[in-house]
Amino acid sequence: MVSKMRKINVMEHELVPEHHLISEEEEKKLLQDLGTEKESLPKIKRNDPAIKMLERIYGPIRPGRVIKIIRKSPTSGKYIAYRVVTEE
Amino acid sequence: MMGDEIKKRINSLNFALLSPDEIRKMSAVKVTTADTYDEDGFPLDRGLMDLHMGVIEPGLRCKTCNGKVDECPGHFGHIELAMPVIHVGFVKEIKDILDATCNSCGRIKMKDEELEVYRPILEKTILNGEETLESTSIVNRIIDEAAQRTVCPHCGAEQYKITLDKPTTFRENGRKLSAKEIRERFERIPDKDLIFLGINPNSARPEWMILTVLPVPPVNVRPTITLETGERSEDDLTHKLVDIIRINQRLRDSKDSGAPQLIIEDLWELLQYHITTYFDNQTSGLPPARHRSGRPLKTLVQRLKGKEGRFRSNLSGKRVNFSARTVISPEPFLSINEVGVPEEAARELTVPIPVTPFNIEKLREIVRRGPNPKGEKYLPGANYVIKQNEKGMRQRILIMEKNAEEIANKLEPGWIVERQLMDGDVVLFNRQPSLHRMSMMAHRVRVMKHRTFRFNLAVCPPYNADFDGDEMNLHVLQSEEAKAEARILMAVQEHIRSPRFGGPIIGGVHDHITGMFMLTYMNPKFTKEETLHILSYVKYDKLPDPVIENGKEYYRGKDIFSLILPKDLNIEYKSKICDGTGCKECVFEKCPYDAYVMIKEGRLITGTIDEKSIGAFKGILLDKISRDYPPDVAAQFIDNFTRLAVGVISFRGFTTGIDDTDIPEETKIQVDLILNDAIEATKTYIDAYQRGILQPSPGKSPEETLEDNIMRVLSDAQKKAGEIASKHLGLENPSVIMARSGARASMLNLSQVAANIGQQAVRGRRINRGYLGRTLPHFRKGDLGAYAHGYVRSSYKKGLTPLEYFFHAMGGREGLVDTAVRTSRSGYMQRRLINALEDLKVTDNDGIVIDTTDNIIQFKYGEDGIDPTRSKGGKPVDFDSIFQKVLGERYLSAKRGGK
Description:
The complex is a heterodimer. Chain A has a single domain, classed as Eukaryotic RPB6 RNA polymerase subunit, CATH 3.90.940. Chain A has two helices and four strands; from the N terminus they run E-H-E-H-E-E. Chain A has helices spanning 24-34, 49-58; strands at 18-21, 43-45, 66-73, 77-86. A four-stranded mixed sheet of chain A has the order 1-3-4-2, with helices on one face. In chain A, strand 3 (66-73) and strand 4 form a beta hairpin. Chain B has a six-stranded mixed sheet. A four-stranded antiparallel sheet of chain B has the order 10-13-11-12. The two termini of chain B are 66 Å apart. The interface between A and B is medium-sized, with 14 and 18 residues.
C-alpha cells in the first residue's frame, strides 16, 4: 500500500517554505543577536519531512542544529524564522 | 506601605493523594449521625454540623480550636465507609492501572528488563514532580504495552480483559469487579513498580483512589442559611453528606446482621451513586441527584467548574472598589478626553492624596468641607483620612460633618486624605464587552449635574456605545504611577487611531457629518451674526476675511471650516458625495458637484467635508491629521469639528420625515412600468424553463440558471427604479443629505421607501420554504413566479400586502438570528484567543515576541515589526503623502495625468 504511493519532494510544494541548515558560527551569531539561548527558539522535530529532505543534502542532522526558514509574508514580503532540531 | 512585607514565598506545589490515614489524622470528628441540629437548633454531637468542624453561629465556640466565628478556620471531619467505593475523579487512572497490572501478583505485566531502562528518566521527572512530554509518553506506552499481555510474565497467571461500564463499574470477562476487589489488587502492586505507572510512590498509592474514608468538609464551606422566617436551609453539600451517611449506616447494619448478598450489593451501589454525585453531579450515565424542589444539587465539581464556578467567577474575576456604573448620555461640549461624572458618584469616589507641607493648607480646606459640602457649585470634600497611629498601624478615620473641623486641624504631613473626585482627575472608562484595547480608555473627569456619565459623541465608535440605555463603568486610579501610565498610554487621544485597520476609529458620527456637509457643500454664505453663532463653541484665532456682496459682509462656509484646520496642512482627495457616475472624466478641483476636496496651507479651497473627511473609520482628513500631528492637535481638531457641527446644525435646523421620499406621480408610473417589465421578464424565463429551452449558464443546472436570472432581473429592476426615484431626490433633501454624506442610511434605503423593496431572501436565495412545493397555501404548487417566492413589489411608503409582509418578516428574521449566533460564537473565539495570547510580549529589542519563559513566539512582531496603530491602513509607509510633500505639484499633476 505505502510503496504504491509516489514519493514526492515536499520542498517543491508551494505551501512549504524554504528550509536551510545554518552553520554553527551562524548559530552563535544568531543567538547573540537575538539575546537568547537555543532552548527558547521554536522547535522542529527531527523526523519532520523538511528535515528529512535536508538530510539528503547534508547527511544526518543531529538535534540541536538550527534551521532557517524563509516564508512568504503578507505584511513584510519575506519573513525569516529559526527552529532548533529536536529528538523525535 | 501595606502588603510590602513578604511573609512567605511559594517555591513549589506538590500534588498528592490523601491516604485514609491522613484523612483520619486531619479529621476533628468522626461523623456518624445523619442529621444536623436538634430541636433547639443546637448542632448535634457527631452530626454534620458538629462543633468540632467549626462554627457558623455567632456566640458559639469551636470545640477544636476554641475560636469564635471569624477566628476558627474550620476543621475537616470524616466518615468511615462501611465498604470501599470508587472515586469518580480517578476512574480513568483506575482503569489504566487495572489494565497494566497482573490480576494475581500485582506486578506490571512487563519483564523487569523491559521496564528498568526507563527508570532513570522517570525518576528524574516524576520524583521531582516534573511531568514532561517525554515522561507521560513513556508511561502511556508502558500502560498500552502491558495491557496487551494475556499472561503475566512474572507469575504466569492468565490475564483477562477489563472493561469499564461508565461511570464506575469495572468488569473482568463480564464479571463485575467490586471496589473491594480492585482495592485488594492495588494493594498488591509493589512500590517499585509505581513509577512506571506515572505515580510517585512518595506521594501516592493506587489503592488510595478507592475510598474507605470520606473527608467531611468544614461547616464554613457549607454554611446553613437561616431565612427571615427563622427556617433553616442546608447547603447542597450537607444534603448530599446526609444521604451518604444514611446509606452508609444502612449498609453497615445489613452487613453486620448478615443480610442477603443481593441487598448488600444494592446498598453498596447506592452508596457508590451518592458518593459519585457528591463529587460530580453531572457525571454522564448517572441521573443527577436532586433537591426536594427538583433542582439538581450543586456539588463539588459544580462549585468549581464553568463561568459561574470558583475559578472564573471568584478567582479570575475580582470585584473592585473605587468604581462606578451608570447610564451614559451624550455631551457634545466635552472634549473627547473628558468624561462627565454625576456629583453623586463623585462624592463616593475618592483619590488618596498624601499630606505634605506644600499642600497641607489646601487639604485642610478640603477635609473641613466634610463628606457633603453644601453650595450650588460642586466642591470636592473628603471621605476618609488615613493616619499612622502610635503602633505604626494604619488607621482609617471616617470624616463626618461633626468631626470634619477637628480632623482638619489635626492633619499633619504623612497622613493621607481620601479626597472626593474633582475636575481633572484621571479615570478609566469602560464599556463591555471589552473586545479591544479602545474599550477601556483614560478620561479626565468633569463633575456635572444629573445622574449619567457623559462624553463626546466622537468617542462612541471605539466603545461601540449608543444611548438607548447603555451603561458604562468608571474606575478611579489610585496611585501616581497608575495615573501617569494611564495618561501616557490609555488617554483617549492616544487611541484616535485603531490598531485594527490603521485608521481613525474616533471621529465624526451622524450629525457631525451632516453638520460639516451643510457648512461646506457649495460653500454657503453666512452673515456675521450667523457666523458668530456657529463659531460660538469653537476656539479660533480670528474670523476669516469676509466677502462683500451688495455692501454686506458675508463669511463662506469653507473659510469657517478652515479655521479649525492645522495651518500647514495640504491634502486632496475625492469626497463621499463623489459617486463617480455621470462624469466622463474627473476635473478635480473644478468638480461641478463640489466633490473634490482640496486643502492648501490649511485652507479648504474646494470640496465638501463629509464622511470621507471626518467620519470614524473612513475619514481621510482625520487620518492625515492623526498621523502627521501630535495627538493633542488631533484631539483638538475633533473637539473643534464636533462643536462646529453642532453649531451649524443647531443654527440651520435639520429634520427629516416621510415626505422626504415623495416623488411625482409620473415618476411613480415610470417605476411601475419598469417593475411590470421585470415581472414579464421573469415570466419569460419561467416559461422557457418549463418548456425546457432555457439555456443553462456554464456549470449550473437549469434550475439554478432560472433562479439566477430571476434574481438578476428583479434586482436590476430595483436598481433602475431606485435610480429613477432618486433623480427627484436632490441634495437639498435632508434624507438625501444624510445618505449621500454618509451620516446615516443609504440611497438604497431611500429607494426602498420611495419606489420598490425588492426580492426577500433567506440564506442568499429566494424564499423556498413553507409547504410542499409552495411557500404559502395562497399559491399553486410548483409556482415559480416572483410573488410566490418572496418578491416585494411595494415600497415601504405605499405599504406591503399581507403576503409581502410575511416574506419580508422572514427575510428580516434571518438577520436577527444571524447576529445572535455570531455574537455568541465570536465571543467564545475571543475568549480562547485572549487566553492563548494574554502573556505574550513584544520586547524592546527588535520587536521579538516572547512568552513568560522567554520562548520566542515570533521573530518579529507581525512579521514586519510594524505597530499597526501608526500604519496607514496596515501599510507601514504612506508613499502617496510623502511624494506629495516632497514633489508637490509635480507629483499631483503626474498622478492626475493617469498614474
